[in-house]
Every structure is written in structure tokens, then in C-alpha cells.
Amino acid sequence: MSVRKIAMTAFRVLQLAFLALVAADVVLDLTHPFWLDFLPLVLAYVLVAVVNRWGGGAPDAPGVAREPVETGPPVTGRWSALNSPADRTPSHGLHAYGQTFAIDLVAEPEPGARPGFRALWPLARRNHHFPAFGAPLLAVADGTVVRADDGQRDHLSRTSLPALLYLMLVEGSARELAGARRIVGNHLVLDLGGGTYAMYAHVRRGSFAVREGDRVRAGQLLARCGNSGNSTEPHVHFQLMDGPDPDTARGVPFTWRGVGVPRNGEVFDVPEPAATAPSGSPASSASRPSGV
């Protein structure tokens, strides 16, 4: 087990110890000094700082600068970019989980096709209201499937203010403590060679068309867009990493052939390769593209 993996495991154990001490203090009315409750939390962040400095780098540490790796896009159809590394890095606000250069995509087949954010109502929407749900996810290059993690449910959207607060304050915190798998949800990782791995996160449960160990060709159907893990709505979350484990990998910059790196809010079209898209899929019609 790598130093970074051990560090992340210890970090979560110390966070749980902090919560357990606080709960015990409230329920049992303990008489020890209150600052002792925070000792595990302090140790957790000291551990990350130490490993960052002397242990080869924690998962939060930026990796060595690399040139962008060119691949094909993971989707076809008409899409809009969110949380793009073209606007800032880390694109999602942190380097952890190898997502320094990650990008989110939402399907935009036509104006108004994707439900917008609402302050109060409806609190949540079902996934079929979003055109990204069920859209094909395609191999961005030839490679080998090294992870195909399925089984987590596709939850309702978190596209209202109360639902978003719940995600940020309750659900997201619980997923963070549970580890990377609960953050990225159902996910698939391809080994592209040369120390580069492509990850597709928040995949639809039961949609995997490949298994671990399979060799795949560029443009091949891998799975379908879903809404599992720490996700506000059905969308494609894509990133390149320098290892297969998002808990310890560092992000690698990418550029998509024919597209580049779309900026936040930029709408782009990817032609559908006739030989790879199955009939009846959401991407097989110009009015139904593929996911956020």
C-alpha cells in the first residue's frame, strides 16, 4: 500500500474519531477539556501536511507538470461544459481524487431541454427529466479496463437550494468519510498506457458494457451516463489521472481531438461515429446527445 493510500485511510479514521469524541461528549457529558475532542482533527491535517512535505506527496498535492494528453471526446452529440479546467485549476476546487483537470458535461440537445436550478420547488427531479441520463460513454482511446465499479444507486437530482444544501452539508460529508468510491459513484477507469488513466464517474447503475480486463478500442461503448455518487444531476464527469486509484492518483491535463478543452458554459458538438453508436441510444438522434 502506498504512502498516500495509508495517509488517506488514517485521515478518515482520525476524522471519525473526532466525530465519535464530540458525540460522546454531548451524550455522556464528559468532563475532559473540550480541546481534546479536536485533537484527532488536528492530527489528521498535520498528517496530510507531513506527507505532503516528506512522504512523496499526499493526494491533495499537485503532480509534476505534464503536457496535455490528446484523446477523443467521451461523448457524442451536443453538450455544455461545467467546472472546466480551461477556466481554473483545480477545476473542482481541490486536487484530491485526481480531479485537478476534471471536467463535467451536461447534455444540451436544445435550449430548455435540461431542467434548470430552482430555489425551492421542485426539491428534486427524477433522472429521466435530464437528457444526459442514459447517454453513451465512449472510450477516448484504445486501452484496457482496469476498474468497472458498479452497484451504487442513481439518486434523485439535487437541483434546488434545500437539496443542494443537503448535498453539501450532510450527504457530501458522509460520502467524504466513506472514501473515494462513494464520491465518484459507479465509475470506470481505462489504462491508456504511458502512465495515463481515464476515469468516467457517476455512471448509471447496471449500464456497463465492459468488464475489468477487457481491451477496448477508441469510440467503443463503455457504459451510460448516470447520477450516482456525489452528483447534483445526471452528468458526465471525466478526468485523466496518473494512476488507477482516484484516492491516490494525481490529475493529468487533457485535450479532446477536434474540441480542445471547452470553457464553462461553452456548448460544443461531437459528431457521432456511425460504427460505434448502438441504435436507439440517446446519442443516435441529433436531438438527444450524451450526459453531464
TrEMBL record:
One of its GO terms (molecular function) is hydrolase activity. Residues 178-242 form the M23ase beta-sheet core domain. CDD domains: M23_peptidase. InterPro entries: Cell_wall_metabolism_enzyme (IPR050570), Dup_hybrid_motif (IPR011055), M23ase_b-sheet_dom (IPR016047). Residues 271-292 have a biased composition (Low complexity). PANTHER family: MUREIN HYDROLASE ACTIVATOR ENVC, PEPTIDASE-RELATED. Coiled coil: none annotated. The keyword Hydrolase applies. Residues 269-292 are annotated as: Disordered. This is M23 family metallopeptidase. Keywords: Hydrolase. The lineage of its organism: Bacteria, Bacillati, Actinomycetota, Actinomycetes, Kitasatosporales. Its EC number is 3.4.24.-.
